[in-house]
Hints:
This protein is of the alpha/beta class. Helices cover 35% and strands 22% of the residues.
Amino acid sequence: MKTVKELSKLYLDGINITKTMREERNIDFNTSEIIETAYDIQAGEYQKKWNQKELQDFYNIFTKEIADIILSICKPKSIMEAGIGEVTTFVKVLKHLNIDNLEAFGFDISWSRTFFAKKLIEKENLKNINICTGNLFNIPFMDNSIDLVYTFHSIEPNGGFEKEIIKELFRVSKNYLVLFEPDYDETTEDNRKRMESLGYIKGLKKVIQELNYDMVFNGKFKNSLNEKNPTAVFIIKKNEMQDDLSSHKKDFFACPIDKSKLIKDEKENLYFSTESLVVYPIIKGIPCLRKENAILASKYEI
C-alpha cells in the first residue's frame, strides 16, 4: 500500500487517489480509511477556492438556497452540518440564516480539514460553532440532540452504506434531517456512470422509504456546484417533534462507541466516557471523537 506521502505526490500530479487506493485494496467502494486519507491530503484546497473573488457570488447563491430551504421548514435553535469539511459552506449558510443565539455544530472525518475549519471560524469571528472530528457511521453526538441536521455532499463518497449513515443522522436529529446529496436517480446515464466509478451513493429516496421515515419533500437543488454531479434535496421530518432542550447545551458530545455522554476534563484537556471507560484527546482545540481515537483508560478518574 502506498504511504500518505506517496499518495500526496500522486494527488499533486492530478491522480485520483481514491481510485488508486480502491485498486490497491481490490475493492469497488470507498472505506472510511480511503475517504479520510483523500480528504486529509486535500485539506486547504476548498478554502483556496472559497477565497477566490470570482467564486464568491456563486458561493453566496448556493448557500443562500440551502438557508432558504431550511427556513422554509423551521427556524432551528440548534443546527449541525454533518461532514463540515473546511466549513466553507456552513459559514455562509449560518450568515444567511441570521438566527440569533443559534447553536451550531459540525464534525468531519479528517482532522486536518477540521483544523482548517477552526481557523476559518476564528477568522470570521463566529462564536457559536462547536466542531470535532467524527465519523458518519458513529456520530459523536447524543440522541435527538440537534434540532436540524443537514448534509451537503458529505454522504456522497459512501456508496453502499447509505442506510447505515441515514439511520445515524436520523438518530442525532431532533426534528428535521435535510440531505443535499447527489441526484443519482434523476440525472443522465453518463453522470450515473461517473458517480458509480467514484463510489458515490445512489438510491437515497428508496433507502428513506425502506426506513419508513417521513420524507416531506424530495426535489432538485437549483444551484448545483457541478453539472456532472447535480444535487437533490431530501427533507425528513421526525414523527414526534420535540422542543429544544437547553440541557444539551453542555453535554451534546457522545462517545461514538456507545453514545453515552462524554465528560470534559478541563485540566487534562480531554473527554472521558464513564460507560466505555475510554478517553478522547483534544488536539489544537479540536476534540478527536472517532472510535479510532479512543484510548482505553479503565482506571481513569476525574
